Amino acid sequence: MVVLSHPAALNELFLVKASCKPSSMFTGVPVVDLAHPEAKTLMVEACQHVGFFKLVNHGVPLELMTSLENEALKFFVQPQFHKDKAGPPDPYGYGSKRIGTNGDMGWLEYLLFTTNPEVVSPKTLFLLHQNPQSFRSGVEEYTRAVKKVCSEVLELMGDGLGIGSREVFSRLIRDERSDSCLRINRYPACPELSVEVEALSGRNLIGFGEHTDPQIISVLRSNNTSGLQICLQDGTWVSIPPDHTSFFLGVGDLLQVMTNGRFKSVKHRVLADSSMSRLSMIYFGGPPLNEKIAPLPSLMSSEEESLYRELTWREYKSAAYKSRLSDNRLSLFHKSPTATH
Ligand code: GA4
After folding, report:
1. Residue 118 has what pLDDT?
2. Does a structural domain hold residue 186?
3. Dist. CA 212–CA 328, nearest whole Å
4. Within a domain: residue 13?
5. Which ligand 1 atom sits nearest the alpha carbon of residue 104?
6. What is the distance, to the nearest Å, from the Cα of residue 113 to the centroid of all Cα atoms in its chain?
7. Would 149 be classed as within a structural domain?
């Protein structure tokens, strides 16, 4: 009998069974054209059924995306000891393999920047780049562009839900104290993960373990390497074909709270590849830390009960940072049925 031992570097922390079968319910990722007259309706439907959609015709030039991607790669090619000077993340900065502070690991390295002027990203982050100025302006320009798209999308969602003010979501990320962040993830190719290892042990290399994003909304752009998977409401995992020209939008936990569960915060994960490295850039749109978040009364029918208690983003963020990646953080804020009586 052939006994296959995993290559030393790939211990159980990285190799997991991550089955992904085609779901009969799923006809493909919902695609929304930002310029289409029905965009708001399609977005609302996608957020209700999947919590995720692909956005095309968004107006952000491909050059702006690839230019930041190239700047980031110039950071990542540097020697490990050099990159480590910008880490470990606290929670912003450079990180490698460790995600958060509670033992989660993934086959990736990353950079995390905050856009909140009241919180500071480590200065070394930019200084450790060969060309700090162009890296900084790349991050700033990209963030500005993606924030604009995100704000347009949130306005359309407000419109689509028919909740009086279309700015009810977008104002939260447009606020100058918005606690949003930008994450750049690089999932190196892992040649030790041969096809045989995968086939014989039925295991996959976890790049970023399953989780939901705690913020309002996430806007992801990646290179053309696959790896992203989302979990459908029937529990099946489906792979999302990459498209380096488009954005992928995901509902975050706070949007699920504000819509009283109508929009679903999408569970997702990333599997690493044996031959191609994946680079993704994700903008996480969050509100100011002191913002009170609760189900919107304008959305709820008169007899409808709030599923969640009011929280501040500071409170939710701090609970998130105390949790493990795969924990169901929203359940901590569920109103228990008895508490309402
Ligand atoms: C998931 C979404 C964002 O990447 C992130 C992540 C954060 C981190 O990497 O520091 C967390 C994770 C994320 C949720 C639970 C906690 C916090 C790692 C972790 C185990 C930056 C975020 O805001 O929450």
Report:
1. 81
2. yes
3. 8
4. no
5. 20
6. 14
7. yes
- Report pLDDT for 196: 64
CATH no. for residue 234?
2.60.120.330
| N residues, the chain | 341
Does residue 5 surpass a pLDDT of 60? Answer: no
User: Domain total for the chain?
Assistant: 1
pLDDT at position 24: 64
Q: Which of 90, 213, 313 to mutate to test the pocket of ligand 1 (most atoms within 8 A of CB)?
A: 213
Domain of 284 in residue numbering reads as 23-333
**Strand order across the beta sheet in which 181-187 lies:** 31-33, 52-56, 247-251, 217-222, 278-285, 181-187, 104-114, 93-99
The alpha carbon of 279 and the centre of ligand 1 are apart by a number of angstroms equal to: 17
Q: How far is CA 106 from the centre of its chain?
A: 15
pLDDT digits 0-9 by tens, 36-83: 999 999 999 999 999 999 999 999 999 999 999 999 999 999 999 999
CA 329 to chain centre: 15
Q: Ligand 1 pocket: which of 173, 313, 325, 327 to mutate (most atoms <8 Å of CB)?
A: 325
Look up 278 and say whether it is catalytic: yes
Q: Residue 18 domain-assigned?
A: no
